[in-house]
Amino acid sequence: MAEMRGAMQAAVEQGADMVELRLDTILAPFNASHDLPSLLRLSPLPAMVSFRPRWAGGLYDGDEHQRLQALWLAAELGARYVDVEFEVAPNFLANLKKRICKIMVSYHSCNKSLTAEELGDLAAKMQNMGADVIKFVSAAEKITDVAPMFRLHSLSNIPSILLATGERGQISQLLSPKYGGFLTMGSLDSCQELFPSQPTLSRLTKVFQTFHVNENTKVFGLISCPVSHSIGPIIHNAAFAEVNYNGIYVPFLVDDLSEFFKVYNGFNFSGFSIGIPYKADALKFCDEVDVSSQAIGAVNTIVRRKCDGKLIGYNTDCEAAISAIEDGLAEQQNTKTNVLQDKLFVLIGSGGAGKAIAFGAKQRGARVVVTDYFYERAEELANAVGGKALRLDMLDDFCPESGMILANACPVGMHPNVDRSPIKKKALKHYSLVFDAIYNPATTKLLREAAECGAAVVGGLEMFIRQATAQFELFTGNHAPEKQMRQLISSLHKH
Ligand SMILES: O=C1C[C@@](O)(C(=O)O)C[C@@H](O)[C@@H]1O
């Protein structure tokens, strides 16, 4: 009880509009007639009371009649909302003495997502029962399971709350204010373990700034799998706020690209970043692709053209990585012109980022050597850029000349496997500059060892910021607030 009072205070301090009092989370002994009046009296915000039984995903497995009695009491004591499960709502409403509070009828599908038909059918039944607000909590098996929930927000003529659980369901809360959802659910940091399926209130307000999301907000996001490692949401949302652009940038954890683009095909979805492992595949879903992305064979940016809704693909990785490497070399060599010309440029990894880097290096006149865990892929990319392929097991002994450039574009060494490097330390002495496309961690084992061997090093954050500012300009048509974006990145790095 004391913790719940503290949590209510924290919620008000962090800017919540309402608190949900989940009575089932209170450890016994909980005596409704003794404890509820003071809880409700002390609540600094309008309260919505729920008492979730185990069969609906809650923690309570005691007597059902006692549970309903607590909810009847909450209704009489002036809770703003009482949340009752669909299955017991008819009984609850029939025996409610005075209807002074609003009734939320909720439906819980903990292990399975609900189809559009199921949602529509249940919503109509809830409304017929006399619900003031309808609420659904269901598992999102795929990110596209959230789309019918967005539609229900628009179709429902009474307020609706739709929470899709799991990482794939997170957009249900981030975008709920856009679709007219009654409220966005967020957990307090201190309650995160109890409600892992909800974003935290601090992330909602600080990163996604959901208080500013409205029906005109344009939706952008990163399509990737995994996606949670990305700092994109932190950087892009802050940049939108900086230039007063009405946009939100969200993580799209996508398993099936084709289905994603089919379902989220409206004007609301204005642009996408493309991350691992989709940069090459995403090209197929673009209606048009700019010339260099076509040559590279990968896109990391897709923008929906305003006049006709067509998806236009770009690659901002290429210029970002190559210009970062060039600046590193220029600083080391104290010269500015053609620093990559004729250099032997060894690239590890021939996925989407690797393709962009190989293409850029070749364009700048470097001699490109590609190595990959899958030799055939290395060969394919090497042929495309007029370079040579190298077997990965030869990399550690590869030294046709000194002063080579090494670029890593494979995920070895990325969080959480930070103790790994794609190349032996002893081989690094042959390189004058080493670049790593990985930005998490900012300094990978590869870069640490390269610096110890005396090479100049360029980290993935430099590529990240450059590709992100170019992407921001394609997304919004505005200049990116680069200084603020850089400051934010360095403050993240310090923490
Ligand atoms: O490679 C990256 C990184 C990224 O996938 C991210 O993690 O935010 C975003 C992409 O635009 C970019 O090309």
From TrEMBL:
Span of domain SDH C-terminal: 460-488
Example of a GO MF term: 3-dehydroquinate dehydratase activity
A Gene Ontology biological process term: chorismate biosynthetic process
Residue ranges of every copy of the Shikimate dehydrogenase substrate binding N-terminal domain listed in the record: 222-302
Protein name listed in UniProt: Shikimate dehydrogenase
Biological source species: Adiantum capillus-veneris
Taxonomic classification: Eukaryota, Viridiplantae, Streptophyta, Embryophyta, Tracheophyta
